[in-house]
Give the backbone structure.
Amino acid sequence: MGLLGASIALFAYTKIIGKPSVAVSRDSSKVEVQDAKAFLTSLQMQEGQIDFTYAAEQTVHGVVHVHTKAMMGQPDNPIMEWFYGDRYSRPREVSGYGSGVIISNDGFIITNNHVVENAETVDVTLNDNRTFTAQVIGRDPGSDIALLKIKAENLPYIKYGDSDQLRLGEWVLAVGNPFNLTSTVTAGIVSAKGRSFTLPDGTYRIESFIQTDAALNVGNSGGALVNTKGLLVGITSAIISPNGAYAGNSFAIPVSIVKKVVDDLREFGQVQRALIGVNIRDVVSDDADKQKLSEVKGVLVTGIIEGGSAEAAGLKENDVIIKFDGLDVSTTSELQEQVGKRRPGDKATVTYLRNGKETTVPIVMKNVAGNTSVVTAGMGGDIVYGAKLESLGSTEKRSYNVDYGVKVLELNAGKFKDIGMPRGYIILSINGKKVKSPSDVRQFSNNESNLKSIGGIQPDGGILNYQFGN
């Protein structure tokens, strides 16, 4: 998929078999000592120079090598099977590689969701060459974060920093395993904050990247982005490149989002995603003229979701949101990042402009089901028309030769079960619109109130579409 004449690459590395070696060690938990040493080291540098050695020495030991394995079958191809027989369709073992960040001394590790999705086994190698089989505690395609756990004690780890305090031009270091070269450190500056774009497979959307010019390549996925104090400020995830290799633009998920996702996965096994119930876009010049805004910034409300938090708070279409909980929000990505740090039931304030008048109102955020309850596995946003849905992983996409769609995992009482939809059915479209996530099924059916057609693939690979009267 092209983006501004380039491509967005997810840089977990996949190949047929292969055994890497890797590194990780040493504790970085004494922030006070780190700060003091970093300060003293900086005093020894000549004016205008910055020393990265202390931060690099500390954080390189908190990044691990992640190795995944899965069995992947070939899609049906009668011609190839005629030539090669059963050998063509026989499942093959596929290995994937990436990075991970140790965040506690008892073995919790953060990586990217796309590194471990569809993996049958996940191994983690430390710097002393010990290898552990990791348990996947939880995955969140919406943020591209996954949480792993290994049975080990007294591990080195990297402490959380504060990505909200990052400034443009600030130095950062990226630590990971590009091209299976273990324990690699690169440096760059924060080029931009709040970058937002859709990744090429369409299964999830990162709303607020940190953009840097630190060199990242294949295998860096899930690695650490740290500041000069050695504190974690992001998880490296993607690059924009014409050829899939580093070309000057790298992206990391802010630790403000990462920490919240990890806490949810540890406590609930599923992310508690808060919503305020609005459709939004960035303010443009025409909007500023119509609304008589002094600046071309803010978030324009283009629609209000019925029964949502914004409706209850009195917001209306064409309001311009300028603050969330007292913090300025100039773009949709800034607003979404702030909302993304909250859970359903959390309270905040929204400041908006209407007809030139500024108003601040309290708001109670809800989940995708329209209430403030905790969402557990098997309920909440993934349940639509009584069916539990999940976005297709990369292996399934290859198997069905598609680049989007959601899979029916379970069928309970509801519309989909009533029409005879089989378990394992792949939903490709709802009412003629391409479906990339479970939330699309709900959105394109107008919150389950308008269903005219379903397009998709049966578990055996056959095409099966459903049509309904008006």
